[in-house]
Amino acid sequence: MTGTFRYSPISRRLSIAVMLAVILVGCGRGLSGTYVLTDGTGMLFKKLTFTSGNKVELTTIMDSTSEATYEVDGDKIKISAAGETQIFTIDKNKCVVGGGMIGTFCKK
């Protein structure tokens, strides 16, 4: 045997399907992980932790945490809790910008 390896048609299809799945997951629109206040201007939150199921944990500067839902729409993130929605922006550095009294949060 000379070291030539041949894929069966099923193996080739399975490999292509797995590669496509990895690419699609990597291009997902959701966020994950913890983003911490970086610019020091935030008066409300010190960190945002994005979890599965489009949930985000909002930790205040007083160390209390509440849960909200979020939705990504282009470079906008809509965070909703208790009937209120705040719109954040994802900047060129992939940080989450709330503006004004909310501040900017970058991935930890």
Number of helices: 1
Number of strands: 8
State the helicity in percent bands.
Answer: 10-25%
Mean pLDDT: 80
- The rounded distance between the terminal residues' Cα atoms is 51 Å
Identify the quaternary structure here: single chain
Q: Could you list the spans in which at least 5 consecutive residues all have pLDDT below 50?
A: 7-28
Q: How would you sum up the major sheet?
A: 8 strands, antiparallel, barrel
Order of helices and strands: HEEEEEEEE
- What fraction of the residues are assigned to beta strands by DSSP? over 45%
Q: Structural class of the helix and strand makeup?
A: alpha+beta
Gyration radius over CA: 20 Å
- Globally, the shape reads globular
